[in-house]
Amino acid sequence: MTRDSIRLFVYGTLRRFQRELIEPDTFDIPESRKNAFFRTHTLLEKSLCLGMAKTRGILYDVGRYPAMISGDGTVVGEVYDLEPEQLKTIDLLEGYEEKYPSRSHYIRIRVPVIFEDEKSDEAEVYLYNRIVHGLTLIESGDYCQYLGSLNKME
User: Fold this and answer.
1) Alpha carbon of 145 to those of 53, 67, 122: distances in Å?
2) Domain extents for the chain?
3) Is the pLDDT of residue 41 over 70?
4) pTM above the 0.90 mark?
């Protein structure tokens, strides 16, 4: 990666083993964002995964994907090293409009992350920019673990 690379913390459908399970046609999102999912999948597969990490936040189940908001909980995810141009594709997928953040489905901010080896760094993360009232709280803060527990109940 270049000196200008950006670290991205992913906590839901973009996590390594979740990407393979997603059926974008089931998402209630515009077609352009579905197409961005396939491009995002490819670019993350080719990007360096720096490892598992945690950050502060609260996670909710939106239905087919999770939503992270700021808060005092802990959210589990992975950190990737990306080029700035690659991030623009993910911005499209996440519905992030840099010039009009209030209209964005998710907003992107920089947060501190702590890796499994206790090293800390900063990474970009997408925070949900909608109301979470009525959504199911993911108490563990780990979307993959949460989905696993749902599958065991079926």
Assistant:
1) 14, 15, 24
2) 6-153
3) yes
4) no
